[in-house]
UniProtKB/TrEMBL annotation:
A UniProt-annotated Pfam family: Response_reg
Provenance organism: Paracoccus amoyensis
Domain called Response regulatory: residue spans: 2-116
Stretches assigned to the OmpR/PhoB-type domain: 124-218
Coiled coil: none
Single GO BP term: regulation of DNA-templated transcription
Protein name: Response regulator transcription factor
GO terms assigned for molecular function: phosphorelay response regulator activity; transcription cis-regulatory region binding
Length: 220
């Protein structure tokens, strides 16, 4: 799961990055409106945490531009502005959720996970696909009820496939959501992660459609 934090307070951004990273997100950060508008409009994210008070373009202007340009990433507005009229303005501009500062990090993580599940059409926190169970909240993988030890990268891959179980996910899309802007994102790296997972969970769960991508076998 790939997340973008748009926050000019670097202390808050650092706290958010640590919390989201621990919750299984691949996190990127920008601290001004112009960079945020460009990044959100040209990259695909599972979640964007957007502060309204930014240098350059303000958050509401960015959000309106994203939506007008077709950006469908779930957006959680995070701001010190707590008036209900401003909350309504944010939702009307295209926000999916709104959390005023100060906030509890646990609540933000819970809201973030809920937004990701809903955007994938999966309201439940536990995704069950045959023998495979993916618990998004607890970051736990089980096969036939037995917990399987996986790395954060392996968990992100399985969680993304589980949330998009109704289609075959192309390799470039998987790489984008696993690695973000890292130099490590190439087809060989993805194949290596999938090979490791198949050794851990069995060979019949992650399917390969040659020339198309990867998916999960719901019959597992």
């Amino acid at each position: 799961m790939r997340a973008l934090i748009v926050e000019d307070d670097h202390r808050i951004a650092s706290d958010l990055q640590r919390a989201l990273d621990s919750a299984g997100f691949r996190v990127e950060h920008v601290d001004n409106g112009e960079d945020a508008w460009f990044r959100g409009g040209t990259e695909n994210y599972d979640l964007i945490v957007l502060d309204l008070g930014l240098p350059g373009l303000d958050g509401l202007t960015i959000l309106k531009r994203w939506r007008a340009e077709g950006c469908e990433s779930p957006v959680l507005i995070l701001t010190a502005r707590g008036a209900w009229t401003e909350r309504v303005e944010g939702i009307d501009a295209g926000a999916d959720d709104y959390l005023p500062k100060p906030f509890r990090m646990e609540e933000l993580i819970a809201r973030a996970r809920a937004l990701v599940r809903r955007s994938g059409g999966r309201a439940a926190s536990v995704q069950q696909l045959g023998r495979l169970s993916v618990d998004i909240n607890r970051m736990q993988i089980t096969i036939d009820g037995v917990p399987i030890s996986v790395t954060p990268l392996e968990f992100r891959l399985l969680a993304y496939l589980a949330l998009h179980r109704d289609r075959v996910v192309p390799p470039p899309e998987l790489l984008e959501h696993l690695y973000g802007d890292d130099d490590a994102k190439d087809a060989n790296a993805l194949e290596a992660v999938i090979a490791r997972l198949r050794r851990k969970i069995g060979t019949g769960i992650i399917m390969t459609r040659r020339g198309f991508g990867y998916g999960l076998d719901s019959a597992g």
